[in-house]
Amino acid sequence: MLSRAGDPGPAIRGVLRLVSELVGLNRGRVLLPRESDGYLSIHYSYGLRRAEREQGIYAPGEGVTGRIMETGQAHIVQDVDTEPGFLFRAVSRDTLPQQTVCFLGLPIQHDDDTIGVIGFHRLRDRPRAFDDDIQLAGVIAALIGQTIRIDSLVHERTRQLEQKNHALSSALARSDVEDNLLGVSPAFQKLREEAVKFAETDVTIMLSGETGTGKEKFAQLIHRHSPRATGPLISVNSAAIPEHLLEAEIFGYERGAFTGADRTRPGLAEAADGGTLFLDEIGDMSPDLQSKLLRLLQDHEIQRLGSTKKIPVDIRIITATHKNLQQAVNEGKFRSDLYYRLNVIPLLLPPLRERQEDIRILAIHFLSVFADRYRKTINFGTGVIPRLQSFHWPGNIRQLENVIERAVLRATTSKILASEIEKILNFESFVNPQDGETHSTDNGQQRPDDRSPQHHRPYRRVDDIEPQTLETVLKECHGNKTRAAMRLGLTPRQFYYRLKKLGIN
Question: What's CA 272's distance to the chain center, in Å?
Fold first, then answer.
C-alpha cells in the first residue's frame, strides 16, 4: 500500500486500519511536529474521531508521546491506568475498553533523526506475544518514516520548481520570450526599451560592450521590432572569417574572380536585401574593406569581386564591437568617416557584473535548459546564487552559461553545491594563459595552458595594486571584503591573498 501510493495520507491510514483489523493494534495514530511551534499533532490515524485527533497535541517532552519524540526511544506502557505520564489527551479513559489497556509508542526515524511518533492501543490479555507486536510496530514505523520522507522530498522539489517557475515567469513577464532576452535590472530594461524604440527607424545602430554581453541577441531584437522584420537578418562575424575571404563573403564574387572561384556567388549583403545585415566585431575589418563598407552605406549598392556591375541593395546595417572604436579612430586604425556613419545610434551593453539582479534569473534559466538537455532533475544548493552574484564574470552571460552547463554535467546529486561552483569559478579565475605560461589560481594551484577555459579574468600582479588602494576601497566598503574585491575586479580569495601578501591587517 505504501509503495504504490501517490498520496501518503490514504496509504498510511489504510495500513493503520489493516493493523487494527488483523492484529488488534487499535486506534493507531501518527504524530508529526507542527511547523509553527514544533508541537506534536496527529496527522494520520484510524479509529479516532475528529475531535480526538484535534485534541491530540503534545508539547516537546510532554507525556509519553512527547518523551518518545524527545529521546528517540520506544515506550511500552503495560497499563495506561497506572502510568502517570499517560495523559489520555486524545482518547479519554471512558472510550477505552474496561480491560487492561496497553500503549505501544515508537519513534518514526530517518537517518537517525526522529521525525515523528507512532502509537497504538492494545489489550494486554491477548494470545499474541507482546514482542511480536513491538517488532511489527517497528517495521511499520520504519516504512511509514520512509513514506513521509519521500513525500517531504516531493513537496520540497515541488516548492523549488514553483519558485523557479515564479522567477522565470517574473522575468519573462518583463521580457519578450521570442527575443530570448532575460533581465529585470534597470540597466537592462532601459537598454531594451531604447533598442525597441530605435528599431522602428532605419538608422544605423552600433552595439558595443564586452564579449558575451548578448550583442547578437540585441541585433535580433532590433530586427524583429523593425519594419524589416519580414525580411532576412544576415549575420557576419568579421573576426571569425579570414581577412582575405571576408570581402568575398560580404560582397560576393563572379566566376574566375580568383583561384577557386569556379562559379558566381552572391554575397551576404545581397542576401540581406530587404532586411538587416548584422556585422559583428566590426573593429577587426581591414582598412580596404572599411572603405568598401563605407561606399555601401553611402550608395546603397555593392559590387561583386571580379565584376564592374553595381547592384543596388536595400539593407539596414547594425554593427557590434567589443573594442573602443573611438580610440581606434584616434590611433588611425579605423576610418573616422565610417565610424561616424556606423555610430549614429550607439547602444552600450552593460557587463553582467553590473546586472546583479539578472544573474539569478539567468542562472535559473540556464539550469532549466541544461537539466532538460541532459535529462537531470537538479537544483541549486544553498549559497550558490550569492556566489554567482559575487563573481566578476569577465566572460559575461556566455561565461555564466558555460559555468552552469559544466556544473550540471559534473553534478552527482540532485543539488549543485556551492563548493562545486567554487571549484568551477576558481578554474575560471586563473590568469590569462595566452602568453604561453602556466599561472596560479586563486588558491595557489598551478594549471597548464592546455586546460585553459574560453574566458579568463585579466591577470593582475599583487604589486600592481598598491596597499593604499586596497585600504581605501576596503574603507569605502565598510570592511566588506567581498564587496571590496568586486570593486577591484578580484575574487574574494584573490583579495584576501593580497591583504596577506602586503601585510594589511
Answer: 37
